[in-house]
């Protein structure tokens, strides 16, 4: 720990002042929690949830807000009441966390009150988006073999794995993944390699992403029109929906098209986070008895200490190659390049890139 790290009282942070309005601000550096950690940011990958907040599809309780939650930090200070994980934790170790509403990553420092696998703790409160959250976050210590630029992928892998474990496919299921952005690829890779499906197909409007999906997990990938023309109704047992908010022709809505091709009593797993109302075909849900489910954010249903077990498993999926971290990395942008960072946020929906990592390292 250097003298600069100890005595610095301010830090730079990218603040969102309102939808699509950002500023690089100098703000107070956070104080180490008594039972938590102060971390110096190393790498943060951009997530579609960041984009939903940037675009105004998700709403903070107040502005300004600091985006970024796919986070890797280096421990620079440890609170006196902190309880370490079973394998210990020291200044200089790297940590990734998972927390439902815990933005704040696009800043040079942040704090976290972690729960590691095997620990049972909670600090529950009623969040401003209609669920119980925890002021603590599930966390994992990152092993040396996982590169900085790949380690922040542990967070989205945790989210996808929570959803799959809560509503798993059955052995031999025919699986469809809607949307082959990063979450779709992560979910498809996990299902293909660990859940013994009959097959895994995917749909995306991007030919490039369809090609990438075929290389990673997909037995058959379709553009939407080909999916409609080539795939019969009642084909799939299980759908994993990794799509962003959808607008447009209701008859061509990909969610409706997927439900038509889901078998009676099929399982439809919703992943994407948006407070913007989305349309689902309630007739098909009723007529077919489709089960629609998701992994609850509410910690009274899915406690954070259980997510701590999931994040540990997600980390091993990256280190073992179940999830191909090097293939997911599309580009790395220095945190100091404000204009380029904002350009990525503005153009995220129109790119075929996978993961863009913001690099805070000196």
UniProtKB/TrEMBL annotation:
The Alcohol dehydrogenase-like N-terminal domain, residue ranges: 35-113
Pfam families registered for this protein in UniProt: ADH_N (PF08240)
Keyword Metal-binding in record: yes
Keyword Metal-binding: yes
Cofactor needs: Zn(2+)
Alphabetically ordered keywords of this record: Metal-binding, Oxidoreductase, Zinc
PANTHER family in alphabetical order: D-GULOSIDE 3-DEHYDROGENASE, NAD-DEPENDENT ALCOHOL DEHYDROGENASE
Family per similarity comment: Belongs to the zinc-containing alcohol dehydrogenase family.
Name of the protein described by the UniProt record: Alcohol dehydrogenase catalytic domain-containing protein
